[in-house]
Amino acid sequence: MNNKKVVQWDNSYSVGVRPIDEQHMELIRLTNNLFNSCMAGQNKITEVFLTTIHEVVEYTLYHFGTEEKLMERINYPHCINHKREHNNFVREVITKVEEFKAGKQRAPLEFVCFLREWVLHHIAVSDKRLGDYLLSLKQTGDLQRIVFKAKKDTAGKQVQIK
């Protein structure tokens, strides 16, 4: 399978929080994997799409959990809107999976395009705003060291925000 990239990490996407940036990089990697499976032909799409989208959903929920726990810890003023974006994403994923199962041939590629745009927009706008808020807390001395366990089915990974 070719390893073309429909989206590539750029340091301008960094929110300044290493664990969140690393999770964003993983979401971009998953997006590119899904794109490459779509480009490999219909047999590969059928074989890989549902497995890959499941991986995307699992990882995205883990990532959303990390962000939401962080936002709650710091009393982030845009938390409700940010969570709403996360919920809208999940609804769109469900729609695309249902379309694929119903036989819509273009559903996987449409989902890749949606995922690419959503990841880039969400990181560049919503998550960047969260990063800016964290930076302002650091600069004013209002941010104490935050440590928490990120939820993940297999094992909770400790997240530290300094």
Mean pLDDT: 81
Q: How helical, in percent, are the residues?
A: 55-70%
Number of strands: 2
CATH names the topology as Four Helix Bundle (Hemerythrin (Met), subunit A)
Radius of gyration: 17 Å
Give the class from helix and strand content and strand pairing. Answer: mainly alpha
CATH architecture: Up-down Bundle
Determine the strand fraction and express it as a percent band.
Answer: 5-15%
Within the largest sheet, what's the order of strands?
Answer: 1-2
Helix-strand string: HHHHEE
Considering the protein shown, what is the CATH homologous superfamily? Hemerythrin-like
Biggest beta sheet attributes: 2 strands, antiparallel
Number of helices: 4
Give structural notes.
By secondary structure, this protein is mostly helical. The chain has a single domain, classed as Four Helix Bundle (Hemerythrin (Met), subunit A) (Up-down Bundle), CATH 1.20.120. The protein has helices spanning 18-39, 42-73, 79-101, 107-140, and strands at residues 146-150, 157-161. A two-stranded antiparallel sheet has the order 1-2. The longest helix is centred in the C-terminal third of the chain and has 34 residues, at 107-140.
